[in-house]
Amino acid sequence: MPRIAGVNIPENKRIEISLTYIYGIGNALSKKILDELKIDANKKASDLSAKEVNDLKSFIEKNYKIEGDLRRQIMINIKRLKDIGAWRGMRHAKGLPVRGQRTKTNNRTVRGNVRKTMGSGRKPAAAPT
Quick check: helix, strand or coil at residue 38? Predict the structure, then answer.
């Protein structure tokens, strides 16, 4: 199982898909990386040579912020927004949608599926026998 940036990528999948298991690399960036390194995107991760794996490791670590560094950067950005008292920072602190979504309905995923109204999520009354 090839290990890139501290993440074991799955061997049985195409390398194009396997790279997306790394936090910070999506489909588009995966394709771009493989094009730059001239590695066939349809090749399975287990079929990569040691040289190709090392090239991938060095290229990704040198050119992109991924995994822990990226998570840390995002946390710092959110903390900065909270510290300066920005509207977005307040929304992050309260656990509400940040990007202008409506909150009268449809924000359960951000709030952790909280059901506060009387009728929502209740089990139907048992039928008399």
Answer: coil
> What percentage of residues in the chain have a pLDDT greater than 90?
50
List helix spans (H) across the chain. Answer: 15-18, 27-37, 50-63, 67-83, 87-94, 108-111
For residues 97 and 110, the answer to whether their CB atoms sit within 8 Å is yes
Q: Give pTM, 2 decimals.
A: 0.72
- CATH number attached to the domain at 68-110: 4.10.910.10
pLDDT band at 86, cuts 50/70/90? very high
pLDDT at 116 over 80: no
Class of domain 3-64: mainly alpha
How many helices (H) and strands (E) the chain has is answered by: 6, 2
Q: Is pLDDT at 124 greater than 80 in this prediction?
A: no
Give the span between the Cα atoms of 101 and 124, in whole angstroms: 31
**What residue has token string 């995107």?**
41
Number of CB atoms found within 10 A of residue 85's CB: 9
Residues 113 and 121: their CA atoms lie apart, in Å, by: 10
